[in-house]
Specification:
It contains 15 helices and 22 strands. Helix 5 packs antiparallel against helix 15 and helix 11 packs parallel to helix 14 (457-466). It has 2 domains: 17-178, 3-Layer(aba) Sandwich (Leucine Aminopeptidase, subunit E, domain 1); 197-508, Aminopeptidase (3-Layer(aba) Sandwich). The chain is α/β, with parallel strands linked by helices. It has helices at 57-64, 68-74, 109-122, 140-151, 180-204, 212-226, 235-241, 244-250, 295-298, 306-317, 366-380, 394-400, 412-425, 457-466, 501-508, and strands at residues 17-21, 33-39, 43-44, 47-48, 52-53, 84-88, 98-103, 128-131, 170-174, 229-233, 258-264, 275-286, 326-336, 348-350, 356-358, 385-390, 405-409, 429-431, 449-450, 474-478, 484-485, 495-496.
Length: 518
């Protein structure tokens, strides 16, 4: 019987487009929505002195004949970040149909990110919105607002009819003149937000389309689009080069595994330009293998590709954020399936470089594929730093819930850098201990290590991976806790989150990303 043809993904909603305009929001032509910031006002003696309205409010209030502060008071508005008061506007000569009054809290980047997401939800299905929210902080705040507005717009659909809702088509950042520097800042913000969108989209694609060869084709397309070099190992080359972990995990699937490599070099790269290696877990679907997951735990496993999606999206945006170092992205892609040739508990596999693992849990497959890629990076790429990203352990969700990711690092300086970039990006990561006290749990009677070492699960998984990086500065991002958003929260809409791309770009897009890492 011939294989069924691959399904075709229907056209997907696109993120909003952004533009700069020096005019006040009420003066921007051709928009059907105006969004104004609402500030809580000064506080003293444990009481608020009243709400304040941001740039452009006086002109809009006069044009519409409305007392906006009285209207907000009547709605018991507080100015809290993300709070929305919607005011329909009667059709007149102009195009304006809706006024949004959006709380911006203390106007910190996180507040403006939430305000951007709130705007995106309130303005969906509209053609264009003009807002002065980003003008409150034209630097860090603009980047945060664009991320919130972009990701708060995210949608994915595979229906026989058009999608029920569409993101707002265009967001005009009013009160910001389109100078060269401001355009550059906006372009950078759009690149970072777009990487978050791209990693979400890859993570959300169903696994009847998304398999390792499909993921490799996405990488090739991204490379051609962004000027990266792309190399793909198929199953024969993986076998020839000794990638036993990737092959073992992927061998039960009808779609064979792949190792994807993308290379980025800055314009002025020379022999002494250091190299960062990013490694992503690209499990396109995780059934658990013979150690099969229960049905309810399997239903979200199309998002087990998140680490690989983050690496691909990050690599595609490096030039746009002006990354000054070489970066190599490696994605270990496999489907963890069940068949007569499936990896069995008790099997011993040999990784790239020769280290062996006894497989006592086929559902601990992510560390097996990552191990191959980490060993290859150390052996062949002369890395200054390695960072891997994976939805690796359910234990991380138990520890941190669903709004904070976890990470491990073997250098304090690297840990501080990663944590700072993640906080700035709005993808917070909490450092966990590489506790050597649990090292003996990895002991195997027949191999170098046991892949199913047990609890504390996130720590023993990190210790397993640490053996493959040697003395290279290394961070391991376990984003299983934040791999899915169960409902609308801040900039997250429900579904796979693609968490991590913005954090990596905030780091790698800095002027000196490798300063102080020891």
């Amino acid at each position: 019987m011939s294989a069924a043809p691959a399904p075709a993904l229907p056209p997907q909603p696109a993120p909003p487009r952004f533009a700069l305009d020096a005019a006040r929001p009420g003066e921007v032509p051709g928009v059907d929505v105006v969004a104004l910031p609402v500030l809580p006002g000064a506080r003293g003696d444990d009481r608020a002195d009243g709400l304040l309205l941001g740039p452009g409010a006086a002109e809009v209030s006069e044009a519409l004949g409305l007392d906006l502060l009285a209207l907000l008071e009547g709605q018991s508005a507080t100015g809290e970040a993300g709070e929305v008061t919607a005011v329909p506007v009667a059709p007149a000569d102009g195009s304006l149909r809706l006024l949004l009054l959006i709380g911006v809290g203390e106007q910190r980047p996180g507040d403006l990110r939430r305000a951007g997401a709130a705007l995106a939800r309130a303005a969906r299905d509209r053609a264009a919105v003009a807002t002065s929210i980003a003008a409150l902080d034209p630097d860090d705040g603009l980047t945060a607002f664009v991320a919130g507005a972009t990701l708060g717009s995210f949608a994915f659909q595979w229906r026989s009819r058009p999608p029920e809702h569409r993101p707002v088509g265009r967001i005009v950042l009013a009160g910001l003149a389109p100078t060269r520097d401001q355009r550059r800042l906006l372009d950078r913000a759009v690149a970072i937000a777009g990487a978050g969108w791209r990693s979400r989209q890859i993570s959300t694609v169903p696994s009847n389309l998304k398999n390792p060869p499909w993921l490799a084709e996405q990488a090739r397309s991204m490379a051609a689009e962004t000027g990266l070099d792309c190399t793909v190992w198929d199953e024969r080359r993986l076998a020839d080069d000794g990638f036993g972990g990737i092959l073992a995990v992927g061998r039960a699937s009808a779609t064979p595994p792949r190792l994807i490599r993308l290379d980025y070099s800055p314009r002025r790269a020379g022999r002494r330009t250091p190299t960062v290696v990013l490694v992503g877990k690209g499990i396109t679907f995780d059934s658990g293998g013979l150690s099969i997951k229960p049905g309810e735990a399997m239903s979200t496993m199309k998002r087990d590709v998140t680490g690989g999606a983050v690496v691909l999206a990050t690599m595609a945006a490096l030039a746009d954020v002006g990354c000054p170092v070489r970066v190599v992205g490696l994605v270990a892609a496999a489907e963890n399936a069940v068949s007569g040739d499936a990896l069995r508990p008790g099997d011993v596999i040999r990784h790239y470089g020769g280290r062996t693992s006894e497989v006592t849990n086929t559902d601990a497959e992510g560390r097996l594929v990552l191990a191959d890629a980490l060993a290859y990076a150390v052996d062949r790429l002369d890395p200054t730093v390695i960072v891997d990203v994976a939805t690796l352990t359910g234990a991380m969700k138990v520890a941190l819930g669903q709004q904070i990711g976890g990470f491990f690092a073997n250098r304090d300086g690297l840990a501080a850098t990663i944590a700072t970039a993640a906080e700035q990006a709005g993808e917070p990561l909490w450092r966990m201990p590489l506790a050597a006290a649990y090292q003996d749990k990895l002991a195997s009677k027949v191999a170098d290590a046991d892949n199913g070492a047990g609890g504390p699960g996130a720590i023993t998984a990190a210790l397993f991976l640490q053996a493959f990086v040697g003395d290279v500065p290394w961070a391991h991002l376990d984003v299983a806790s934040v791999g899915d958003a169960p409902h609308d929260v801040f900039e997250w809409t429900p579904g796979p989150t693609g968490y991590g791309a913005r954090a990596l770009l905030h780091w790698l897009g800095g002027a000196e990303p490798l300063a102080g890492l020891d």
